[in-house]
Recover the amino acids of this structure.
């Protein structure tokens, strides 16, 4: 079957929620034009072994979102790659919006506005800051569901397999190439779990500092070591959940 869209989900320790994430995708408009690819960063394959849908493509890759998403892109058959975090959901018309956006020849990729699944007012502030940052800098991050034309993704070299900031690095290289990306005015919804575990203020300030250091040239390896050494850091991932 020829797919228009390939939805690539890098996972690590998501066995309890992955089937809900997949089931949600099947309810989106135009989901029949999409393949779902789950790439597990755990060699024990705990997440992909939990998947009950036999139609989902499942592979193992070296731990790290960059290497996992590159693995997914290598086996993808769709003309458009969609990189989805396992704790993020898209609204019903999201796939249709992606297809319409990339119908324009001058646009190679993009992302969505960020929503956070919580009733707390502070998360509305975070969403607003992300909205402003995305519009001013045209710099979306991974939890905003980055999508890109597959041919261009391979032309630009895919994700760098670095321990942190692989999403920021990709978007920066796309912009430096002179190609156009766009932010769709529709929210995806991501989990507040990292902010709630680490503390909203601490997580936000720490991530601002990390991205600022990355932009002035500090090595991702050094940033990842600092990120892992912070006392409240959980062991699931080394990537920041969101950088405002």
């Amino acid at each position: 079957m020829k797919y228009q869209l390939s939805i690539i989900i890098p996972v690590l320790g998501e066995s309890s929620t992955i089937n809900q994430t997949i089931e949600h995708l099947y309810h989106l408009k135009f989901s029949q034009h999409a393949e779902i690819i789950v790439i597990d960063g755990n060699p024990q394959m705990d997440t992909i072994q939990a998947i009950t849908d036999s139609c989902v493509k499942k592979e193992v890759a070296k731990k790290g979102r960059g290497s996992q998403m590159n693995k997914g892109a290598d086996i993808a058959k769709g003309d458009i790659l969609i990189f989805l975090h396992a704790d993020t959901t898209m609204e019903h018309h999201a796939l249709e919006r992606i297809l319409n956006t990339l119908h324009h020849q001058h646009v190679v990729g993009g992302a969505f506005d960020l929503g956070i699944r919580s009733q707390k007012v502070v998360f509305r502030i975070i969403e607003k800051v992300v909205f402003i940052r995305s519009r001013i800098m045209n710099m979306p991050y991974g939890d905003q569901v980055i999508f890109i034309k597959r041919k261009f993704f391979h032309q630009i070299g895919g994700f760098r397999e670095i321990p942190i900031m692989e999403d920021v690095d990709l978007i920066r290289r796309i912009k430096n190439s002179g190609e156009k990306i766009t932010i769709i005015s529709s929210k995806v919804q991501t989990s507040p779990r990292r902010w709630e575990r680490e503390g909203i203020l601490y997580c936000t300030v720490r991530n601002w500092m990390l991205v600022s250091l990355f932009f002035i040239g500090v090595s991702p390896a050094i940033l990842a070591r600092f990120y892992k050494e912070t006392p409240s850091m959980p062991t699931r991932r080394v990537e920041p959940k969101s950088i405002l």
